[in-house]
Fold:
Amino acid sequence: MTRVPSRRSRVAVAVALTGAVSLALAGCSTGGSDTANTGGEGGSTISVAVTNAVTSFNGGTPQGNLDSNGMVGYLTGVSGGLGLGSFFTLDPEFNVVPEEGFGSFEKVSDDPLKVEYTLNEGLKWSDGEPITADDMLFAWVSGSGWFDDATLDEETGEPKSGTQYFSLAGSTAGLDMTSFPEISEDNLSMTLTYDEPFVDWQYVNPMDKPAHIMAKQADLSVEELRTLFEDSPKGDPASPAAEAIPELKKIADFWNTGYDTTTMPENKDLLVASGPFIVSDFVPEQSLTLSKNPEYQGDHKLAYDNLVFRFIGDSNAQITALQNGEVNAIYPQPSADTNAALDKMGATLYPGDQMAYDHMDLNMGGETFKDPKVREAFLKTIPRQQILDSIITPMNPEAEVLNSQIWVSANTEYANAVKENGYDAFTEPDIEAAKALLGGATPTVKILYNNENPNRVDTFQLVKASAEQAGFIVEDLGDPNWGALLSGGEYDASIFGWVSPGIGNSALAQIFKTGGGGNYNGFSNAESDKLVDEAQTTLDPAELEKKKIRIDAITAEEFYGLPLFQTPGLFADNGSISGLEYFGGQTGIVWNAQDWKLN
Structure:
């Protein structure tokens, strides 16, 4: 047995919540014909076991915002603002690593803030079409909300007038400018002009789906698509158009749902990639195969031909597959038993902290928790210390209950946040206080979680037992398809986790602003909305910290839910590959798959 320490013993970057829903066991499958040395496309193959089955080739939508979808997007192009077929990735210290084989970007002006992105000449999508500034322009259109003229309902976050075209898992924060981008004559550069200083300008990565594939959805050429963007008026929620722009609506509808699939699509347009990998096979509930993109011209030269994701939800089944040589590496749900089993078989372990935390959110848009007293009563029943002791303490005796929705304990801001936010008052249950708040009422609480994830099952059982002591009636809505159900709101509380990329602040709007793409529980607070907007343009670190601490405190005051614990991470291999290294961000085990080699 070998343990390879991560470069960071503890995560020291703020959890900005930009990202994919965290590790959840979305299906257990030990079948499939892939092995460590053969692949569907022939040649050398590396196989890795992951817990979640892929559900979409677009991780940028609320329903597609899952870790496994993001990993595929990262390898084939870009996902969550990072990708091997885009302008930058991250290293294990969460520093930006420019993809120099793809292009470059630079700030060309401070007042106003201007940033120019330039593509290298000769880049091609996997179908042979050129990568141009039109692709960057589409990425900006889809991410900026430029054409949106919707007014959102303050309680539900749903449009009550006008049109919201692209359904984003994140937010338009920072990109919702008033100047249309400038495109160079050679169609290789795009310049963004910001209305105000933007704290996260260096983390804007303007690549998304191919413009020529998007244009095709409205029977347009790429040139006609750019004309559509240039000639159509900017959306104005104060004066919404009588009808949506028909061509743009077709494109947005396709982007929103057209990439959702759990099998190899007949429409090969869904597979077009800019990164070193391209999807070549997809066996439902079993595996997805990535192969070399023959048109890729960047810096990453793969030392093998195929990368197979094996969907194995159960950690014990992952360990068996690793021991039997069915996979080269695994990305399991960490637990004391998992670690012990891997030690026993002599695997190489890569442990570390994830930029992730588990939490319970209350659905504030439903009837059950409409009354803040009922929300407070329920939170007073959550046995957070017991949950920690049951799940995390056996692996990390020094672990503590998490008391922030924004930071983890290693962050310098964390102690100041805990002093202000009040979450530490909910460490142990107070059943009598909960009963007093309920005043004899016995509300029914339906809890959504992944019932194929042992940690989430344990959390649910502990919450149920404690809450019922106060008079709550707890209903089990455990579902392996929990991720797709989060945005539906047909539950009263949810247990899941967030994974952050480890950089930036702009995604505060994703979670804590009315109508945010990841605001699944219907949280809406005018002060929080204002602070979230201000955070995007606050360049002074001390002032930014104050605003974020206040947002954190508002969530506690509103009885939003409770953070539970920071999630540990674990990779392991059986010695058949080299290059594996721990990374605690969204891209997980595959963050450096481009550097792996078979031994």
